[in-house]
């Protein structure tokens, strides 16, 4: 019997508007690559910081708050985030913070900082180099150290348990999972930054029922976003992507306590971000495994009218710690370009979609 | 550009963790071939048991004993076991709901007949490890148990959770293997060290020379790329006297560890000072590197015999 997560009924409550209008005004990312041996983390990150600032004309000294997301475990480098800060130019001393989480959660912290009125602009960045280590094993170290981590259950194995639960429940099957994978990578053909673009064979099982094609590519990359509040956002960007709501929720760490075929935390985050008040036209989902898109589409009530993962999503490029922030950046970019008016961006963390963040972004009416 | 350097890097550490009362009872029980669950306020039995209700956060403590047989709730076939995993031959990862429990436990299922013999709903039982210490690995794995179909009949029985010599902590070893690549700037620095040269990089904006270079000017936030050879001589800007011998370090204490501003550098680096009694080292002392055989970082720095540097020449580098 799965633990129920409290949600209100089918009728979504009206979510109040945030205290301040805050928008994504710029986004940049690296090309995501299998390896980036020739670059240290700061060498990989710095061009992205320069590009995102150049889009707004801001300099480091103009930024009110800086927040980043990364994990030292990925590349095995202690305090790598302090080295990465070299790329910001943190002198004179800046107001700065870091989360050992995906950059989407760094963006959440920056958003709350802007809400308080302490700052009007924020730089958010995230990076991950998975190539130096074995990411399947590295991710076992985020698990419950008493009951899970001693068994070294790798990230693909845990996702495969979830995929089999979905198959048993009749929510999907292997051909449907293959279709998810191929649709994402077909979309990625238009994304010059993606690591896998166009058709990728499903290949052999990695951990059955998941095949190579159902799994995200392992690679290195970085991304950065600039946030701005109120009129400042309009000064910096022709069509800001206003954050109408953003929320994140977490489920129990015990996999056997959860219903792996559902994501009550994603649904609750979406509800509290106002996602269900009006339909979105676009959704960028952070679903590293094809099976997880099935869960998220159901939890987030996305039907075929919604353009899901026009960027190719995490199946096309999955720089860990940046892949969630990239979803927000890609959604904002489509709004800026006029390809979307209201978009949902999602980020996840932990095994089997344990923790989920949902942001609702909107452009000004045209 | 010279070849990018790479080297193996092993990060290995034992985590010592204490246990709460519920976890202690559960792991002590495994050692004694007993599986305990914990009952929540609404009557559900959680296995593995936790200290706090995952929904209500209520503190839990009512222990019950559940069966050693159970039902697979989902599974995944692992044809290539990885280091540290419960079995070294192909196996199924399983979530197992033990008879009498309402939640499932993650473990391995030894299924010698392969993936076609595994299905959700199949009956399994615990296979104990021969040597048990009070850890989740005291369960070696699960094994098929098609004989025992009477799942519904099992009612958990109350257990006081008391065991002689209870387990109060675990030591969880962790090892991760990496291939370390220091990147462009540091690769160039290390290549130069192999030739007994110290090469830094200059910031195009503030013109400061950083040694060792990390690829970016931390003040300006721009890439450094102009390579500048510095030293080899330098000045001790500040220092400390080390009195505690480090493990695995073949250096007699006391010794001096110093910040050294190499001539031409705008940032001091660290190094050990040798060739002079520790209590005669001083700020402003002029030093030069002593290279180890075969290249690499200087083993230590020794006095050059020059007059001490004037404080004004290095005060900005302190």
TrEMBL record, chain B:
This is DNA-binding protein. Residues 64-128, 228-291 form the ChsH2 C-terminal OB-fold domain. It comes from Streptomyces apricus. Residues 191-223 form the ChsH2 rubredoxin-like zinc ribbon domain. The lineage of its organism: Bacteria, Bacillati, Actinomycetota, Actinomycetes, Kitasatosporales. The keyword Mitochondrion does not apply. GO terms for molecular function: DNA binding. It comes from the Bacteria. It holds the Pfam family zf-ChsH2. The keyword Transcription does not apply. Keywords: DNA-binding.
